[in-house]
Amino acid sequence: MAGKRAVFSWCLYDWANSAYPTVVTTFVFGAYFTTAVAETPESGTAAWGYAVGIAGLVVALLSPVLGAIADRGGRRKPWLAVLTLIGVTTTAMLWFTRPDSADIMWALVFVTLSSIAFEFGMVFYNAMLPDLAGPGRVGRVSGWGWALGYAGGLTCLVIALFGFVKAETPLFGIPTEAAAHVRAVVLLAAAWFGLFSLPLFLFTPDRAATGLGAGRAVREGLATLRATLRDIREYGMILRFLVARMFYADGLVTLFAVGGIYAAGTFGMDFGEVVQFGIALNVTAGLGALGFAWADDKIGAKAVIVISLIALIGLGAAALVVESKSGFLYIGMALGVFVGPAQSASRSMMARLAPEELRTEMFGLYALSGRATSFMGPIVFGFATSLFDSQRAGMATVLVFLGVGLLLLIPVREPKN
């Protein structure tokens, strides 16, 4: 078990990298691309979706491979360092995306590359958790990381919005011509990611190298992965958990992907209100991850996930029937309390289930389970909304994904700490 400084430095990486999905892919740069760079919002949304989808496909296919190779080599920090450097660099390159359709391909290429680097990095970052936390503390350390992640992403977002995008005089004297003050948010996110990731590389210990050369590590890693996939039934509990997570993760992804659309369309929220709602949702999710961190170690990750999914289904059903905007806001914030623990406890559950010698490979499969069907939820939401001409009907499909995931999770047995 590592010391407090090492654990805090690991958790701080969550604070660092959360700036990317919050500022770049969710709130600011994605909106800038679709409204100011693309020829039309519709074509921009479609192109952005394709880019993120391609990145997800690459991550799904290659994460287990990289994880297996890393397990044979032993060390994880060199992989994470390279991926972090790539992520920071490719994010910064988005600065050159002018409000001109001629820059569409530039933006899409670097969004794809930065998304791949971000997701690959999480495989190696997550795999460090069990060695770092030690038995009996995996849940709380995972929860601390998730909570810091929400806090870091939101802090960076607030600086981006009020220091650059909406400021009368943007920070550092950045001009507003050619949307420079908006494009500057990617430089902020890149600097944030790079700066706050440094403590992990300086103070968090890594596993010892196995002494295998790169070529041999690749050969043996691929052989190990083939053997794992061939004998996957021997890892029955892991397989069941990953399938269950595939469904409820789809529900959570859809909830975040379309929550703002649902709030705007059903309750008439304007852009400012949607951003404020998103911020509130992230705050409560972070508080939930922090609050349930100790419960994870006391009652187990599976229990925390089950409690969270039951609460999400109940609150989600309430959100479908509520008529007032204020009622929806309160329910939405309550939903957030259980989103964070469901995500955090899933990571600690995987950490407990994975065999030590295959841990990075298993977190590669974990990444695969989170990406393989991530397109299903939004597609089903869109289909149901169109079929019934109702966003409420579309949102009801989220409850189905959460419910199926819950039912599949129940037979999974969690190892004791």
Key phrases:
globular, Growth Hormone, Chain: A, 2 domains, 0% strand, 18 helices, mainly alpha, 417 residues
Please characterize this protein's 3D structure.
The protein is globular, with a radius of gyration of 21 Å. It is built from 18 helices and no strands. 80% of the residues lie in helices and 0% in strands. With 417 residues, it is mostly helical. The model has no long low-confidence stretch (mean pLDDT 85). The chain folds into two domains: 230 residues, Growth Hormone, Chain: A (Up-down Bundle), CATH 1.20.1250.20; 184 residues, MFS general substrate transporter like domains (Growth Hormone, Chain: A), CATH 1.20.1250.20. Helix 1 crosses helix 8 and helix 3 packs antiparallel against helix 4.
Order of helices and strands: HHHHHHHHHHHHHHHHHH
- Range of helix content: over 70%
Largest sheet: none
Specify the structural class: mainly alpha
Number of helices: 18
Overall pLDDT:
85
Percentage of β-strand residues: under 5%
Number of individual domains: 2
Radius of gyration: 21 Å
Shape, per Cα inertia axes: globular
Give the terminus-to-terminus CA distance. 14 Å
CATH topology title of the largest domain: Growth Hormone, Chain: A
The CATH class label of the largest domain is: Mainly Alpha
Q: What CATH architecture of the largest domain would you give?
A: Up-down Bundle
| Number of E-type strands | 0
Q: Uncertain spans, ≥5 residues at pLDDT below 50? A: none
Q: Would you kindly provide a brief summary of this structure?
A:
The chain has 18 helices and no strands. The protein is mostly helical and 417 residues long. Helix 12 packs across helix 15.
